[in-house]
Amino acid sequence: MSRVSQAQALENRRRAVAAASQLFRERGVNGISVADLMKSIGLTTGGFYKQFPSKEALIAEAAQAAFGDLDLLLASFDTAHDDHDTARGALIDFYLSAEHRDQPGTGCPTAGFAGDMAREPTAEEVRETYAAGVQEFAAWMSTDANDGLPMVATLVGAILLARATAGTALSEKILESTHKALTAPHGP
Predict the structure, then answer these.
(1) For the chain, what percentages of helix, strand and coil (3-state, to nearest 5) are there?
(2) Residue 27 backbone phi and psi in degrees, to 5
(3) Residue 165: predicted pLDDT
(4) Per-residue pLDDT for 188 more than 60?
(5) What is the number of other CB atoms lying within 10 angstroms of the CB of residue 75?
(6) How far is Cα of residue 66 from the mean position of the Cα atoms in its chain?
(7) What is the pLDDT of residues 34-45, one digit of tens each?
(8) pLDDT digits (tens, 9 = 90+) for 131-181
(9) How far is Cα 148 from Cα 153, in angstroms, rounded to an integer?
(10) Which of 15, 50, 78, 107 counts the highest number of beta carbons within 10 A?
(11) Rg (CA), the chain
(12) What is the DSSP letter of 5?
């Protein structure tokens, strides 16, 4: 049996974390098995246990990677716009779009991991990673009037409800009415 080089092992780990980050947001952490995850990247379950001590360790790494992707997205909004208020408005436009609703695997980890964090009482390391990511998102969304938490809570709640009702007129109405409320001159 041939051994995998250290460089290949690192690449396999990176691919596993990236796939887990996407699949956990799409299906939930209990909606994807280790075997299915590894199969999705063309590796065996044995390879998983050479890389990670447990599925919980992978969940923590996948959540951290997903929030890293969110940080890059937020930075791209700042780069693309003249000021942070305009960038925040553009993020709201994107967040409350059908595109974001329909692509949870590459969407916001705040929404993508929310249900799992609420249902996994033993996931302390993951919960800490999640909480730090939510705080960073809220800080980016903050205004002179608030710390950003009301805005994040509204965005996440709206996208979760829109995803839960996708394919119905209500889903579109949730996106539109939340967008209107958040972009009104004196929104939340």
Answers:
(1) 75, 0, 25
(2) -115, -10
(3) 98
(4) no
(5) 12
(6) 5
(7) 999 999 999 888
(8) 999 999 999 999 988 999 999 999 999 999 999 999 999 999 999 999 999
(9) 9
(10) 107
(11) 18
(12) P
